[in-house]
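Write out structure tokens for Tripartite tricarboxylate transporter substrate binding protein BugD.
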Amino acid sequence: LALVGIGAQASDFPAKDKPITIVVPFAAGGPTDRVARDLAEAMRKPLGGVSILVDNAAGAGGSIGANKVAKAAPDGYTLLVHHIGMATMPTLVRNIPFKVETDFEYLGGINDVPMTIIAKPTLPANNMKELVAWVAANKGKINLGNAGVGSASHLCGLLFQEALKTDMTPVPYKGTAPAMTDLIGGQIDLMCDQTTNTTSQIEAKKVKAFAVTSPKRLSTAALKDIPTMQESGFKDFQVSIWHGLYAPKGTPADVAKKLNDALKVALKDPDFIKKQEGLGAVVVTDKRMDSADHKKFVAAEIAKWSPIIKAAGVYAD
Ligand code: MLT
């Protein structure tokens, strides 16, 4: 009877009347939140019309939200949408209360999002050459917004400071949505943020855009005239922020499979794909949608970023 009970439980997933919660480890309105809400909408139908809520559990560069899911019941009803921070946290944040490699079921990859170097609208530079000169002339007085140590904007900001051989004052927020408000208002000077968050502000000329961090220029209308970092003289500067979907370790295999199946249907949804492309993002290949592949992919990313971060000598306790 017990065995049938357990079997029946997994095959009932998801129960009609029990919402699934996707935890977003950053503030509402930011790039991670954007991906999660669009994904939630596209996953509802393949999960039988179940309601999918988004819970913004922000703070500590994304590790608070990740920890909330690591400690959640492994029943498939609490998921995490996170990004490259899953690969940088193990190096950047020395005492996170969970293990990225062992405390999650890796359900699959979602998308790749390029970043943009943007500035407050009043910053007196109109191209990367002038920006580099302005940074050099204002050493020690520049505020660089990010979403906390371990965030994508923090990582890109680190690489940008290294490329310009300068130090800026990091101003951490609970996400790049609140950071963007201050950038538009001129309270902070610069930020490196994902196109899912910056495209609309660049289009509305609320911020100045100096470069994209993709290997080639982007085709999105509002972004196509922005030079790459490569064109701007920083040949090795490429940052792409991938996102993935995770559940707590111990989630039953059939539940994880149902979630991965629904993820794959969502990532093939023409509406979802169109939304991603309109924001400069690209849905991952079929291979990277696979759970086992995503786990291997993140392990390789941890190995890739660890020496880069150590070389930058930045840690957060
Ligand atoms: C990040 O910079 O890590 C995220 O994009 C922040 C956010 O989603 O608000």
